[in-house]
Design a protein that fits this description.
The protein is mainly α. It is 67% helix and 2% strand. The strands form 2 sheets. It has a two-stranded antiparallel sheet with strand order 1-4. A two-stranded antiparallel ribbon has the order 2-3.
Amino acid sequence: MGAQTAAIAGLVVMFIVATVLPINMGALAFALAFLVGTVFMGLRADQIIAGFPGDLFVTLVGITYLFAIAQKNGTIDFLVHSAVRMVRGRIAAIPWIMFTVAACLTAVGAVSPAAVAILAPVALQFARQYGINPLMMGLLVIHGAQGGGFSPISIYGGITNQIVARSGIPGDEMVVFLASLVFNLLVAIAVFFAFGGLRLLRQKAGAGAEPGPEPALGRDGPAAELQIEGYGTSPAAQITAPSRLVPGGQRVTTEQVLTLAGLLALAVGALAFNLNVGLVAISVAVVLALISPNEQKNAVDKISWSAVLLVGGVITYIAVLQRSGAIDSLGQGVSGIGAPLLAALLLCYVGGIVSAFASSVAVLGATIPLAVPFLQQGEIGPVGMIAALAISSTVVDVSPFSTNGALVVANAPPEERDSVYKRFLAYSILVIIAGPALAWLMLVVPGWF
């Protein structure tokens, strides 16, 4: 078996095994990088390790550390409660509050499954309390999380932008972010009206809705164990949500004010001064930990170490794949189709279909390098293509087989869970069929970027 064939076979095995078994894809990737690199390519260990993305490691650790502190000291509870209070009896606004909060959480650095894990229980409780379609409520939470997921200071955005920079092709991080946000917003609008939005627009709190118990989530209650796509279940993947919304009129604590200031400093430093996102996030987190060491002493345990392992392993393997020449060969094969637009569409579908069952982060790390050879030919706008790939690989996370979809289904009332699952499955099939094509039509075919 040649080096290129072995490297491609390893990639296929990695996705299949991590999808079927609860094994961290990153750990598999490191093992396969060692096996393929040494046996089939004759690489030394230092040559294999050279592909490890140190910059992404710092970004992932810094962002998830800061977010863990924000969750632990109640800042996230405060933000969610403040947003809900803005509803003022307008039932139709509740799903959009959840969409907006989810988008803001991922935009400032929360991984999408973490944002959904925090919001899905309270969102579905509100859906039950006010007679909102649980499918619509769950989908708006997920599409909100995905919409904000490609901001320049987010996990998805940071990974995508650094992969693009490493690949040597032109990129525009704000175009990718806004394209994802607008695409998911448009999908959310369609979902809102398709699943009862018009009825909600005519409804007020207390009119036709039986108020139930106050939404309860459990910061002091049990943690919601979360198996992130391709990460495997680990203590680092346990998301602890707030036990209740912050009571009206409760004062903001000093720690929460400082955390909000830290999040603002992160955004300003990264966007206005082009500072390294990971290093700024770690610095802010350390300052907060120094101010309240006892309160934040367990925050390090909440860093998404499984996500760090996933990204580090997959990108290290992709580096081995590139050294084998397999990516160049595949890219030339796609380019050889003779129809660049068709090749672009095929890559979007590859990203969408695989991501519905595997990690979106891993899929982004694999598909963007595949697009590089034919993007370098100049027949397809690289920024539009990257944005289309980003959307295609994440919009399908509504699948009940992905973490986001599974979280919503799991938080549905027991008597509705089977129905919600079936409707999520039907919707995800529709998104897998239509999502990549729509992203391609909007961003690649016009050639705007």
